Amino acid sequence: MNSRRSLTSATAATMSFLLYICTTVVVTNGELQRFIEPAKSDGSVSFITIGDWGRRGDFNQSKVAYQMGRVGEKIGLDFVVSTGDNFYDNGLFSEYDPNFKESFSDIYTAPSLQKQWYSVLGNHDYRGDSEAQLSSVLREIDSRWICLRSFVVNAELVEIFFVDTTPFVKEYYTEEDGHTYDWRAVPSRNSYVKSLLRDLQASLKRSKATWKIVVGHHAMRSIGHHGDTKELVEELLPIMKEYGVDLYMNGHDHCLEHISDEDSPIQFLTSGAGSKAWRGDVDPTTNNPKSVRFYYDGQGFMSARFTHTDAEIVFYNVFGEVLHKWVTSKQLLLSSV
């Protein structure tokens, strides 16, 4: 069922609401909620992926944001993808937490970044009031903000499947983790994950997009500080392979990475360097299998551009310099009428 949010009165017709109101929301039983992002007139789609960023401008967050604005203008940005850990150290304490404005609205001010931001929750977001980031109150404060647990962005030739990965990680349910998580929406880890994966499968099965992307907070493959997430490799990766997913994008590790899967075409792309990085605890020269195409232990972000035949992924540092570029092509599948 398609529904468009409409203005209820003339006094509600303010610019702060227009962006979200004009976004088409599609809800289908048994599948994830969908948002529609039309492709450009030339058929292309461009977006920036950023993760692990919300620190009130500190740890070079503001500098990264500035370069994002420059790149966004250059590529004709359509929207932004956030891979989670949106607000440090412990998410938001409520929908009225000033950290939202101080770490988001006041930082990403470039004209090119005044587009929808599609966000998932990270483990740090779950340490606060996880419901706050999902609240419509935040969209009243800044209409760019859209954050759900799991959902789909349909950009015609590209479909992006956002997955709530924090509930997958079994360590977070133990006292050994040392943190408290807001599990109000996750009464049972196993039933939550099972239901999420069932809905994801239904959405992937329905997809006719040329390019399929899954976005989550946690890395599936990484040589960074946190490394691979075992639960995602065991439970999510087989579904991605079955339904022909092209890319997996994540944050969590505060670095930039590009790793190729060893037995499928899937590419694993980490963009978790939106602010605090430079851990310095990983030596890529001693832990660099052939599948690792790129690793950078510093601040930056990633851009992605898609056409019906080509995809271009570019990683940038805090100075806006290109660190790594990957281009691939996909043959158009032509069918006779």
From TrEMBL:
Lyase as UniProt keyword: no
Gene3D superfamilies: 3.60.21.10
Binding site for Fe cation 2: D85, N123, H217, H252
Entry's localization field: Secreted
Co-factor requirement: Fe cation; Zn(2+)
EC number of the protein: 3.1.3.2
Cofactor note: Binds 2 iron ions per subunit.
Main localization of the protein described in the UniProt heading: secreted
Reactions mediated catalytically: a phosphate monoester + H2O = an alcohol + phosphate
GO CC terms of this entry: extracellular region
Short name of any one Pfam family annotated for the protein: Metallophos
Domain Calcineurin-like phosphoesterase: 47-255
UniProt binding sites for Fe cation 1: D52, D85, Y88, H254
Keywords: Glycoprotein, Hydrolase, Iron, Metal-binding, Secreted, Signal, Zinc
Gene Ontology molecular functions: acid phosphatase activity; metal ion binding
Family membership: Belongs to the metallophosphoesterase superfamily. Purple acid phosphatase family.
Complexes and interactors: Homodimer.
Protein name: Purple acid phosphatase
